Structure formats: structure tokens, C-alpha cells
Amino acid sequence: MIFIRYHLPVIVYAGLIFLASSISTIPSELPEFSFRDKIIHITEFMIFGSLIWRSAKRWNLEIKSNRFKTLVFVIGAIYAASDEIHQLYVPGRNGNFYDWLADIIGLAIGLITAYIFYNKRKVC
After folding, report:
1. Can you give the pTM of this predicted structure?
2. Residue 98: how many CB atoms within 10 A of its CB?
3. Helix, strand or coil, per DSSP, at residue 31
4. What is the DSSP string of 65-95?
5. N or C: where does the chain have the smaller number of CB atoms within 10 Å of the terminal CB?
6. What is the number of other CB atoms lying within 10 angstroms of the CB of residue 123?
7. Are 46 and 113 in contact (CB under 8 A)?
8. What is the pLDDT of residues 19-32, one digit of tens each?
9. Strand locations in the chain (E)
10. Which residues are CB-contacts of 30 (< 8 A; sequence separation ≥ 6)?
């Protein structure tokens, strides 16, 4: 039950990110505005970051808090980098450093938000 509740959502969401990155052109109903792409990246990885944190709290690792936080961030950052690399091979898409940076910002926001929520409730 723990796997389905805490770990499966991360796996499914990572799969959705991969699937979205595999589509050559993504139709969007959002209006065009400056930094729209970056806002999408930030939002996408903010959700991912909160799901990773929620799952990671169930790993029962015997490491210090700062190392745990760093580990979770690095895992998310590596996945974000792999997503940008993946997009380099999809016709019509491109992966770049600034998209990865937006992913990292979203990841950090998601992790911080989940950390605050988790510490406030002591239950996630």
C-alpha cells in the first residue's frame, strides 16, 4: 500500500514528463507571453519535486537531514537533465541549459514546499 500511495505517483509522473518530452509539438491552449516555456518547466518540476519529497520520506534512509535533502535534490536534478538530453533526440524539440535551470528552480520550489508542509504536519 505504501508503494501505491507514495512511490507510484512519482513513477507515473516521471513517465508523463518523459511522454510529454517525446511529443514533437505540444499543442497549447495557453496564450503566448514572455517566459511561458519557463513557467511551464517550473510548474512541471515543482509538482515533481513535491512528489519526490513525499516518496523519499518513506525510504527510511539512515542519513543526516542535510545529506537527505541534497540526495533528493540531486535525484530530481539528474532526472531534469536526462529530460533535456532526451529532448535533444526528439524531432522538433530541443533541450537546453535554460530549460534545465527552470526545471531546477521548479524542483527546488516543490521540495521546499513539501519540506515545509511535511514539517508542519509531521505526516505526508
Report:
1. 0.88
2. 11
3. coil
4. HHHHHHHHHHHHHHHHHHHHHHHHTSTT---
5. N
6. 7
7. yes
8. 999 988 766 666 67
9. none
10. 36, 40
